[in-house]
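Task 17 of the worksheet. Students: predict the tertiary structure of the chain below and write it out as structure tokens. Keep your answer in the requested format; marks are given for formatting as well as content.
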Amino acid sequence: MTDAPRLEADPPAAPLLTPARPSLYDRFARRLSEDARARRLYRWLGPAIVLVIAAVLRLWNLAAAHDLMNQFDETYYVKDAWTLLHLGYEASWPADANARFLSGDVDVFTTDPAFVVHPPLGKWIIALGMVVLGPESGWGWRITTALLGVASVLVLMLIAKRLTRSTTFAVVAGLLMAIDGLAISMSRIALLDTSLLFFVLLAFLFVVRDRERTMARIAETVAARHDGDEPPSWGPVLWNRPWIVAAGAALGAATAVKWSGAWVLAGLGVYLVVSDALARRRAGVLFWPMDAVRQGVITFLLFVPAAFVVYLASWTGWLVTDGGYDRHAGSNALQSLWLYHMAMYASTAGITSAHAYASPAWQWPLLLRPTGVYYHQDAFGVNGCGAANGCSEVISTMPNPLIWYAGVAAVLYLAYRFVVARDWRYALVLTGVAVSYVPWLFLPQRTIFQFYTVLILPFMLLALTFALQDIAGRPSATAYRRHTGQRLVLVFLGVAIALSAFWYPIISAMTVPYDFWHMHMWLSSWV
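Model answer:
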């Protein structure tokens, strides 16, 4: 994997449109290229507009569905979050808890411990919203998830900016995520996956920042050690890598939300060791394989303990109280925690029960069974419904079909481009796809759902952004080639935005005619 040459500077040195004859946009772009202050404004204003779009789509009418989504785990996470606040551990609730909680009677929980299969950090995040806004409506229990959904768009743009070296295509990546139905819907319900997504993206951003520092340091140190024609036997041992510590902490937080964060920890750890090895080989280190192993031990000590400390800290409430599940199963608190984890693992490994929306991982690229997490129907004349076939309120975790299928194709394209170009940026994106998708292929019997792909989505969007950047054309291409390619990119974005507007009512619990909802069921398996 070799560093790719610089593709293009921040716009509009290579503007999105370059017509053969000067246009208003062309003159505007030229003005920006000549005006440093205008360039700085563009770098801030483009991402800011995307964040406003993301925030509006995630926060508007957030409490529309006054329900705890009892087909899915919002019903558990919200109540677990509330008992964590009051007891420090997840407690049990009476049989009619959902109805009473939704009516405002939120303190009917018992002090008996509840057995849960996910670590507590994601539920603490949900609890934070209820501390600020109260538990009376979805605003309280969904607000922090929605805000992390917006923050994930920001982090994706920061990653895309460093990978594509273009503010324009960083904005493209952020816009695609801001308007995608899967990302929006998963930000509007109190599940754990958006919190997991945020911490994973943060870890990838930190790894990119580390690479920017480390590769240059390796090359410079090895060059300084060259003795005539003799290459150095060993490269530098690098301890001063704060971004790796930060990435480990972020993945510890991800794992403290859902254990699937551990797959990312392992995958990124392998990526760090391999990229270090290749950097030492490129620099001319004679014993580069063993040198990479030596550095790999150091990287492990910087990366994994930070993750472990953050993960363990997320269990503080359970550790410092006495009432949690299995709290006294061992001779001390840490042994009890280990025994509890063994029980959690056995329980999650055995989740094989049938579910109407179950979708094995091999189906995910085909988008055969998107998940419907909420559906409410009113007959004609009820609650103001004026449609002959009734009205529906729906939250479907349906991605934008154009963005999804184009993203799948872009991942395959990026894999081809990596084979040809050996570009580290492509390797990092493909690593993200692999660690968030491939492990699920080895669990064919496990009951899993399409909405888990919200963790894969940003890496698909990065692949798609690279593909769109190639379609738009390099600065060295002819004016006709760039003009044609950039028009194609604009057409793609325009159609994607139109489709997102078409799908938004059925991912956000808007009241729509039943027939309008049914218009979106392009495949029978989507119903």
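Marker's comment: The chain is about 60% helix and 5% strand. Strands lie at 372-378, 391-396, 511-513.
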